[in-house]
Every structure is written in structure tokens, then in C-alpha cells.
Design a protein that fits this description.
This is Cofactor of BRCA1. InterPro entries: COBRA1 (IPR010405). Pfam families: COBRA1. With 601 residues, the protein is an all-alpha fold. It is 71% helix and 0% strand. It has 33 helices and no strands. It is elongated, with a radius of gyration of 33 Å.
């Protein structure tokens, strides 16, 4: 009978009444007699366990068996209703909460608004609830959904490895990068969060769109891409068959893994676009997918390759126009993702005529000149190459168009990878001119600026290629390389852009450490004599107004490490002369004093 139950919300009141109305010992004996357990206590006492331990173990065993029955036993509607009526009163009883939650997890359609609200308001209940119950709460409680989803998303967005990978414009091992991203803990948590629930999936996608519009951080686009592809790899068809952009992402993922767009994949992507209506809202999702940095860089690299191949097959730009414009349109659609999602105008934007008619034609002239020079360089016959006029209109294109910026960045990285210092000496001054027109950007801004984000990724990728064995050897042993790269690119850019400044300082430390570890430091004495002058120039011209105090501490330590270790780098043969770094020395002195570093520079 109900009055005999000593569990649940009323149990405390009943026991308290019994203790008040009679002596405690008598009340306890009465409870034991009603439960028919008094005679078994002497036997249990021989096991050396306290009554409390016995009760806990019994409860655990009984609860385990009951949970198993609740999960597996056949039940009709009447039985489910009866069990819910008898178990819901215990949802607040510690140790018994799992029982009604288990039943609700098996029959989530029986969750009323009041039950959902109760679980959503109790973090204790929510944490132990089955995932299917949690999902019902998230669907009904937008605040709870946001509070739980944001930390998962932020863990992905703020992961230094994810940020580093997003800045790689020319990845060496694309499959490894993709797998590393896809296996991130946040991706696994989001899949577990969503399950196969399309409404929850859409809510997650809506959150990513909102955060992307708020910040213009393209890593939200990467996360949107990765969540869908993770659903594909986990064969969650309830999601993949209902996300209209799945076919596009699946084909792009294959392209990203090979860093190429073969004819079959291109044809599949073209057919996908043919099926999308002109003003279909799915263009917002498509644009975000194409704005994923890894994808946009793959497309930009392919666009550059199309232009290079056109010159190698004696085709002029116009003859390859259809393929070129289509690829540029893909890149441009991704670049306009934030505007499309924000303004809800879903028409595919055309690439600006200033980019297609003028900038790309100018770049094509550079590519053609490179091909002629390489073809004629071993010939004894004299030849002349016309200088390319990089006009004001070309600089405006770099100001305004992500297609133009991505193309010039990939062209420069391509020339560095192929160690074409002549081509670099022609194009780098134009890149510097573009950055100067947009100088002194604050990278702590809440809304990211696409130009500076792209150029920051460029510096990261440029330095990464420059640190490869062949490139760093050329740089440290050849005056032409040092003049072109340091004097004409890195030092001027470091003076106006804090991201470039940080990359250059770190590059100098890594470059000389790399040479020291290779045992070849003795052959680069000239570069050691330049090191002091480079450091002094960097420090004097630093973009101080856009360097945070926290970042300055790190940079000061790097300066101190370079100056202190210069002699070590060269095997003791070279040191930075004090007269070469008159302003750097006072800057690094506090670090030396704090860490008792070698100050014999």
C-alpha cells in the first residue's frame, strides 16, 4: 500500500512523523517489521558491513535489474502509462532518478511539456538523462540548446591546430589534415548531440550561420562542412539525404583530399548547380561550404593552374575563358558567403569585371613571361620580355576582390615553391603595395576583415615554404634571395601589419635554428651579419599600435632568444654585433634579467 512506501518525496515526512510520535528505537523496529527484514540483519552483520553499506548494495542490485527490465521488457501503452505514473514521483529522489529517465528515454513521445521543462531546469537531471531525452529538451528549450552548443563550437574554433590548419594555403598532406579535423572532439560531440535528428541538425547549422555572420570567421564554414561530412562518414542518412548541399560537399571532399578537381568531379559539381534554382536559399549554405579556407584555397590553386596550363598549351586567356570564369565564380561565391547569409539574397554573384577583364589578364601576362623566360634561359639567342604594368585598377581589384587576392597569393606561393626568384622579384612589390593601402589592421577586431585574414594566411604559408630545406638554403646563402624576400617583402610588410611582423620574427628564429641543427651554419656567415640589421629594422619599424601587450611579451622573448642564441646557431663562429642592434638590446634586457640568459651579444 502507498502508506507503507518509504521512498519518494513523501517518505521523509512519514519517517519524521513516526519519529516524533514515538521513541526512535521503536519507530525503527516498526519500519523493520513492516519490511520483514529484521530477522536477516543478524546474519548480514557477520559479513562486517554496516547497515548503510548493505542498503546501498541492495539498492544498486535492484536498480540495475529494474533498469534492464525497463530497457528490454515488452510493454503496451497501458503498462507504460502505469509505470510512468508510479515512477515519475521518484524523479527528484537521488539514486532513483535514472528509473523514470530510462523509461522516458525508451518512450520519448510520452514526455510532456512539464517533464521537459523540469529536466531542462535541473542540470543534475539533464546530465544523467538518456541522449534522446536531452535532445527533446534541446528542441524545446532554445536557451539550453545555445548554452550547451556554444562551448562545443568554441572548442573547435579556438583550437590552435584548427586555426593553424585554416591558414595553410598549400597543405602538403591534405588527407591527414582532413582526417585530423574530422576526428576533433567537437565533431564527435556534435554528432552525438544531433544523433539523427534533422531539426537539431538544422538548429546547429542556424547557430553556425549566425556566428559566422557575427564574426566573419571562416572556420565556422569549416565546421559546417566537417559536421556534414562526418555525418556522411558515419552513414547518418537521416541527415545526409535531407541536407541539399550534401552532394556538393561529398564531391568537394574528394577534390580536397587530392588537391585537384578532375573532370568527373567538376562535371558532378556542375550538375549539382544546374539542379539548384536561381534564388534558392541553399545558396547560403553552398557559399559557406565554398568559403571553408581549405576548399577555397583548393579552388584558387586550381584556378591558377588553369591559367598556367593555358599558357603552356599555347592558349590565350580567352580560349580557356569558360573554365576559368566558372572556377572563379565558385571562388567568388564562397567569398560572398557572409553577405549572402546576412542579407538573405541568394543569387550567385558575378565576378567583378575588373577582376576578370583586367586583373586576371595582368596575372596571365606574368605567367606568360615566366614561361618565356624559363623556355629561353638556356638559349644563347637574345630575347626580350615586356615588363608587365601592374596598374591602379589591379590594386583596386586586390582591395575589393577575394578572387584577386587568392590568385596573387597562390601565384607567389607557387613561384616560391619552384624557387623562381626572378618571378618573385617582379610580383612582390605589387603585393606590398596592396598591403600598404590597407595598413595597420587590428587583428583583435570582433569582425574579421577578409583581406587581412587572407594575407595573414599568406604570410603563414609563405614562411612555411621558405623554411623547407631547398628554399632556406637559397635564402641564407644567396644575396638575391635575401634582397628580394627580406628587403622587398618581409621587412616592408612587417612594418605595417602585426601578423606579418609576428611571422617574420618567428621565421628568423626558426630559420637559424634549422640551419644550426643541420650542421651547415658555417657556410652562411653573411646571413648572420645581416641578422642583427634585420632585427634592428624590425624593431624600429614595428607596427606598435596593433600589437597587443600579451603578444608583445611573446615577441620580446623571441627577440631575446635570437640575440642570445646567435653565437650558438653558428657553432660559436658568429655573434650579433652590439652596434647593429642598439635599440633591440634595451628591449630584450628585461627578458635576459628575468631568465638569466646569455647576454654576451
Amino acid at each position: 500500500m502507498e502508506e507503507q512506501r518509504l521512498l519518494g518525496p513523501r517518505a521523509g515526512e512519514k519517517i519524521r512523523d513516526m519519529l516524533v510520535k514515538q521513541k526512535p528505537g521503536m519507530a525503527i523496529r516498526q519500519i523493520q517489521e513492516r519490511s520483514d527484514i529484521g530477522s536477516i540483519y543478524p546474519l548480514l552483520d557477520h559479513h562486517g558491513l554496516t547497515r548503510h553499506e548493505i542498503h546501498l548494495r541492495c539498492m544498486k542490485a535492484l536498480k540495475s535489474k529494474l533498469l534492464h527490465q525497463l530497457e528490454t521488457a515488452p510493454m503496451d501503452n497501458a503498462r507504460v502509462n502505469t509505470l510512468l505514473d508510479s515512477m515519475l514521483p521518484y524523479i527528484d529522489v537521488e539514486g532513483l532518478q535514472e528509473l523514470p529517465l530510462c523509461l522516458l528515454g525508451r518512450f520519448p513521445d510520452r514526455m510532456t511539456d512539464s517533464i521537459i521543462d523540469k529536466i531542462g531546469k535541473s542540470e543534475e537531471l539533464f546530465k544523467i538523462a538518456p541522449k534522446v531525452v536531452q535532445r527533446r529538451v534541446w528542441l524545446s528549450n532554445p536557451n539550453k540548446f545555445q548554452n550547451d552548443i556554444i562551448p562545443i563550437v568554441k572548442a573547435y574554433m579556438n583550437d590552435p591546430e584548427i586555426i593553424r590548419m585554416s591558414m595553410e594555403m598549400s597543405a602538403d598532406q591534405p588527407t591527414q589534415v582532413i582526417n585530423q579535423r574530422r576526428s576533433h572532439a567537437s565533431i564527435k560531440k556534435l554528432l552525438d548531440f544531433i544523433g539523427g535528428d534533422m531539426q537539431l541538425y538544422n538548429n546547429v547549422m542556424n547557430s553556425l550561420r549566425s556566428l559566422f555572420v557575427l564574426t566573419n570567421d571562416a572556420i565556422y564554414c569549416t565546421l559546417r562542412y566537417d559536421v556534414l561530412m562526418a555525418c556522411h562518414e558515419a552513414n547518418i542518412r537521416a541527415i545526409t539525404t535531407n541536407d541539399p548541399s550534401h552532394e556538393l560537399v561529398w564531391n568537394l571532399d574528394a577534390c580536397n583530399r587530392t588537391l585537384s578537381m578532375d573532370e568527373r568531379r567538376v562535371e558532378n559539381i556542375r550538375k549539382f548547380f544546374d539542379k539548384v534554382a536561381r534564388d534558392d536559399p541553399v545558396h547560403g549554405d553552398i557559399a559557406m561550404i565554398l568559403n571553408d579556407p581549405f576548399t577555397s584555397n583548393m579552388i584558387a590553386s586550381r584556378l591558377l593552374q588553369i591559367m598556367i596550363e593555358a599558357t603552356q598549351t599555347s592558349e590565350r586567356f580567352g580560349q580557356a575563358e569558360n573554365t576559368t570564369i566558372w572556377t572563379a565564380t565558385m571562388l567568388n561565391l564562397g567569398a560572398h558567403a557572409r553577405r549572402i547569409v546576412q542579407q538573405q539574397k541568394f543569387r550567385i554573384p558575378k565576378v567583378e569585371s575588373n577582376v576578370t577583364d583586367k586583373f586576371m589578364s595582368t596575372l596571365n601576362s606574368y605567367i606568360l613571361n615566366d614561361a618565356i623566360r624559363i623556355l629561353k634561359q638556356d638559349s644563347e639567342e637574345p630575347y626580350q620580355i615586356d615588363e608587365v604594368d601592374f596598374t591602379e585598377e589591379n590594386l583596386v581589384a586586390l582591395d575589393d576582390s577575394e578572387v584577386a587576392r587568392k590568385l596573387i597569393c597562390h601565384y607567389i606561393l607557387n613561384k616560391l615553391a619552384h624557387m623562381d626568384i626572378q618571378a618573385l622579384s617582379k610580383i612582390l612589390p605589387n603585393f606590398v603595395a596592396s598591403l600598404k593601402r590597407n595598413a595597420h589592421y587590428d587583428y583583435q577586431s570582433e569582425v574579421m576583415d577578409s583581406l587581412h585574414v587572407t594575407y595573414r594566411a599568406f604570410f603563414h604559408s609563405f614562411v612555411g615554404i621558405l623554411l623547407r630545406q631547398n628554399q632556406i638554403t637559397r635564402f641564407l646563402t644567396m644575396r638575391k634571395w635575401q634582397t628580394t624576400i627580406m628587403n622587398e617583402l618581409l621587412l616592408p610588410c612587417a612594418a605595417i601589419d602585426s601578423a606579418a611582423y609576428e611571422q617574420v620574427v618567428t621565421f628568423l628564429l626558426n630559420a637559424f635554428r634549422l640551419v644550426a641543427s643541420s650542421g651547415r651554419a658555417g657556410s652562411i656567415g653573411d646571413s648572420f651579419s645581416n641578422l642583427g640589421r634585420w632585427l634592428e629594422t624590425l624593431y624600429i619599424n614595428r607596427p606598435e599600435s596593433t600589437i597587443s601587450d600579451e603578444k608583445n611579451i611573446t615577441l620580446r622573448a623571441t627577440f631575446a632568444q635570437i640575440v642570445s642564441d646567435a653565437g650558438v646557431f653558428s657553432g660559436g663562429r658568429y655573434k650579433i654585433r652590439q652596434e647593429d642592434i642598439p635599440t633591440v638590446l634595451p628591449y630584450v634586457q628585461p627578458v635576459w634579467a628575468e631568465n638569466q640568459m646569455d647576454t654576451s651579444a
